[in-house]
Write a structure and sequence with these properties.
The complex is a heterotrimer of chains A (about 170), B (about 550) and C (about 110). With about 170 residues, chain A is of the alpha/beta class. Chain A has 8 helices and 8 strands; from the N terminus they run E-E-E-H-E-H-E-H-E-H-E-H-E-H-H-H. In chain A, strand 4, helix 2 and strand 5 form a beta-alpha-beta unit. Chain A is globular, with a radius of gyration of 17 Å. Chain C is of the alpha+beta class. Chain C has one domain. Classes of the chains: A alpha/beta (about 170), B alpha+beta (about 550), C alpha+beta (about 110). Chain C: It comes from Consotaella salsifontis.
Chain lengths: ~170, ~550, ~110
């Protein structure tokens, strides 16, 4: 897996584990499926914990863990499934302030949108990563410099910039 | 009409650069075809039966002469000299090369145009009443609303990968010419019955295609200022919960149908209560800024009746017929809107050559405040013509071959490109339209038959809107041959209804005769000047089914 | 109508040609002995399964090399002039051009001499 963050490639410290046995055997930071979250917390392991959630998971089921995990990874089964973008928005709105990761075959052309919806990073399978090196992600991030929609993490919207231009910046 | 400011202009230029980069990355293998396809679709580029096809957005169907001239230039330089206006008020070129598309997009940006979201699983180009700002029965011009939605939906970071496409239409009039009930989301501007405040009736879940449905009202009255936040709530519910397991069940109409309108409303309202409306919504100054662009042009104060036009009509039957058929009353005294038909008998519905575009651009510039409209019936409109100048306009249109006096008549046929161009089509549409038009080429007969909408689709996806044609024709394939099903009684207006099948499918050669039999049945049964659709509603389908069965029986002999 | 004269249990209805679209231009192309052609008359015809498999292999390779898009078999009959003619109406229109525009498309570009 290849991790792409806002300013480039990074190394993920988290090990993805899928079973209770693997969890028991793991030493360092791990990402566990939502179903194993309780077990991981009860184990009181002294290492950072991440959650892997499906893109149709309910924010209400995830919210109890917001202040107990460092990272939430939302699975993208395919790049053309946009549910993860809305889930990211909902988790941010519900108050999650930790790291938010898009996990799956996202493409570089979606990087800016992922960041705008609240993601911090993308964890790619090797196929996409090999075809679309980090430079393409950074370029795709900054090709379109401003957007119309207000309330997303892509800087001041065009509507806000127009308002500032009218001298009505405060609101 | 709307003009780009520095932000709009830069946004569109950056989008061109982004697409140029995507093309380059497709060619060098960074993007697979599976990845590139949705990216090119979101920029209006299809791979069709013969070649790429580029669909250019004509937001809410409004164009200037300068824009139409640029389209003519593109048609000649990069295509085969013509373009095709679609049922969603857009323009398609049928033969562009991928390598030229970034350049074409640059030329479009030069005249404040683009191809953003004219295809793909995203919020599509917003359509509106072609008589916006003209019609007397209008509460408010729908175009400022449509422009606000155009901007808000463009490259939306959250709603670019929806379960399926999402089409929005806006009307400001009582009589619905924008077919809002058969869109994924329809907005009708209205006045609050008590306060008089302007807002929207919101309709969701209409659509044609393989499961045609009439939309449901999900909000009787949405205050104008709350529009974008409410749309965001609708889109978030659809993006999160629309079906993704089957592309044929992925439109919002299926979600609304499966969970019920009431439950859909509950989920939207629940989401709406959670989101930060004041942040999402456009500030009132922004709404006013956009609306100012759609202020009426500088009309002259004129008497409501033009004696000059009346005299000219009395002296020239062709002019009289044209005005009677193609003129639409203008709210401004002394003016009229003229529908310019792109349906000459034997022509290709919606096609326009580069020469015709240039001639028409000149006419619009000189006689209609430099503005023209595209209709969902694949025609054009000169929205603001002085009645005194109609004779001159008619002469100029005639010289350009654009004076066909058949707006709304039996030969004013909507047809999708069909199997002559489309990779999805199962049968041809255009030759069927041509044959029907030839069958009814007599102008006096057309006028006698009166208003009658024939709509033809070349496959079940229904781009030709056959479900809502007074007569609908659906081309399918049966045993390796093209086969056509006829439906009757569809309606796309505020009386929205889906047509019903008259009987089994028939061969292409039998279609004009079948339409003739249906029309004859109407003529025999009509009462007191009833229009075709009114007779169908009153008399029901049975007499038409009988006539149709007779056609089938004769064909079998 | 489109019943096979030579029907095998697997694979396409023979004979076939292999068609695709040129990626960079979009034009309909057909595989020949030495590359791709826009001229349907020059398409290489596979009369047996082995020949069809060779066409397919070359088509897949060309798609992988980002030269063409969506290569697929087009069942044909061979007319009196030895020219492959698509059996199905969709492919026949694709091979010639829009039926409503005889002046446009391959039917105009490659008129028999």
């Amino acid at each position: 897996m290849t991790l792409i963050t806002w300013n480039g490639q990074a190394q993920s410290q988290f090990l993805a584990v899928e079973t209770a046995e693997a969890l028991a055997a793991a030493e360092g930071p791990v990402i566990v499926p939502l179903a194993l979250a309780r077990a991981a917390l009860d184990g009181r392991r002294n290492a950072p914990l991440g959650l892997l959630v499906a893109n149709d998971a309910s924010p209400d089921d995830i919210a109890p863990f917001f202040d107990k995990v460092e990272l939430i990874a939302i699975a993208f089964p395919s790049f053309s499934d946009g549910r993860g973008l809305s889930l990211a928005r909902k988790l941010r709105r519900a108050g999650f302030t930790g790291r938010l990761r898009a996990s799956g075959p996202v493409i570089a052309d979606q990087f800016a949108d992922c960041l705008a919806c609240g993601f911090d990073e993308v964890d790619l399978p090797e196929g996409v990563a090999a075809r679309q090196p980090m430079e393409q992600w950074l370029k795709a991030r900054s090709t379109v410099t401003s957007h119309y929609q207000t309330g997303y993490a892509h800087g001041a919207s065009i509507l806000e910039q127009r308002r500032a231009g009218r001298g009505g910046a405060s609101s | 009409m709307y003009r780009y400011d520095e932000f709009d202009a830069r946004f569109v230029r950056e989008r061109v650069a982004e697409f140029a980069g995507q093309v380059a990355r497709r060619l060098d293998g960074s993007l697979t075809e599976d990845e590139f396809k949705p990216l090119r679709l979101k920029n209006g580029l299809y791979l069709q039966l013969h070649a790429y096809m580029l669909r250019i957005a004509v937001p809410y169907g409004t164009l200037s002469s300068r824009q139409l001239r640029q389209l003519a230039h593109i048609a000649e330089t990069y295509d085969k000299g013509y373009g095709h206006f679609t049922t969603r008020q857009n323009l398609q070129f049928n033969w562009p090369k991928l390598k030229d598309v970034p350049e074409i997009l640059g030329l479009l940006a030069d005249v404040e145009m683009h191809c953003i979201q004219t295809s793909g699983n995203c919020i599509r180009n917003v359509t509106a009443d072609q008589f916006a700002g003209v019609a007397a029965d209008e509460v408010e011009d729908p175009r400022p609303t449509a422009e606000l939605i155009r901007q808000w939906s463009s490259l939306h970071p959250e709603f670019g990968w929806l379960p399926r496409k999402f089409k929005v239409a806006v009307t400001g009039a009582e009589h619905d010419r924008a077919a809002i009930k058969v869109h994924d989301l329809g907005l009708k501007l209205k006045r609050h019955p008590d306060t008089g405040e302007i807002g929207y009736e919101v309709v969701v879940g209409g659509g044609l295609g393989r499961t045609p449905m009439i939309g449901k009202v999900i909000r009787d009255f949405l205050p104008r200022a709350e529009l974008l936040a409410y749309l965001e709530a609708v889109m978030r519910v659809y993006n999160s919960e629309g079906r993704r397991d089957n592309k044929f069940k992925a439109r919002v109409k299926i979600l609304v149908h499966e969970i019920g309108a009431e439950e859909f409303v509950r989920r939207v309202e629940e989401e709406y209560a959670k989101l930060d409306g004041p942040t999402v919504n456009a500030p009132v100054e922004e709404v006013e800024r956009i609306a100012a662009y759609f202020a009426p042009p500088a009309y002259e104060a004129l008497p409501s009746v033009s004696i000059l036009l009346d005299q000219a009509r009395a002296a020239a039957p062709a002019l009289d017929a044209f005005v009677r058929q193609n003129a639409f009353p203008h709210r401004q005294p002394g003016y009229v809107a003229l529908t310019v038909s792109l349906k000459p008998v034997g022509g290709v519905p919606g096609d326009m050559t580069a020469d015709e575009m240039r001639a028409f651009a000149d006419i619009a510039e000189r006689y209609s405040f430099d503005e023209l409209r595209v209709t969902h019936a694949q025609n054009l409109v000169l929205p603001h013509v002085r009645q005194d100048e109609v004779p001159e306009v008619f002469a100029a249109l005639k010289a350009a071959g654009l004076a066909t006096a058949n707006a709304g008549l039996v030969t004013d046929i909507i047809a999708c490109p069909g199997l002559d161009y489309c990779a999805l089509a199962t049968a041809r549409s255009i030759p069927i339209a041509q044959e029907i038009a030839r069958e009814f080429s007599d102008e006096a007969e057309q006028r006698d038959i009166g208003p009658l909408q024939i709509k033809i689709s070349g496959c079940i996806n229904a781009c030709g809107h056959h479900h809502v044609g007074h007569i609908g024709i659906l081309g399918l394939e049966k045993n390796g041959r093209e086969n056509y099903q006829i439906t009757l009684g569809g309606d796309a207006t505020e009386n929205a209804a889906l047509g019903e099948r008259l009987g089994p499918g028939i061969d292409a050669e039998a279609v004009p005769g079948a339409i003739r039999a249906i029309v004859s049945t109407y003529l025999e049964r009509r009462q007191h000047g009833e229009a075709f659709i009114e007779t169908v509603r009153r008399a029901g389908l049975d007499p038409f089914k009988t006539a149709f069965a007779e056609v089938i029986r004769e064909a079998a002999e | 109508m489109a019943e096979a004269t030579t029907r095998k249990t697997r694979g396409p209805v023979l004979p076939v040609v292999l068609s695709a679209n040129d990626l960079f231009v979009g034009e309909v192309v057909y595989l020949t002995e030495d590359g791709w052609t826009a001229d349907p008359r020059r398409a290489l015809v596979a009369h047996d399964e082995a020949a069809a498999a060779r066409l397919e292999e070359r088509g897949v390779a060309a798609a992988r090399e980002n030269r063409v898009v969506d290569p697929y078999f087009v069942p044909v009959t061979i007319d009196g002039d030895g020219v492959p003619q698509a059996r199905h109406i969709r492919e026949a229109i694709r091979q010639r051009g829009p039926t409503i525009h005889p002046d446009i498309g391959k039917q105009a570009d490659f008129k028999a001499a």
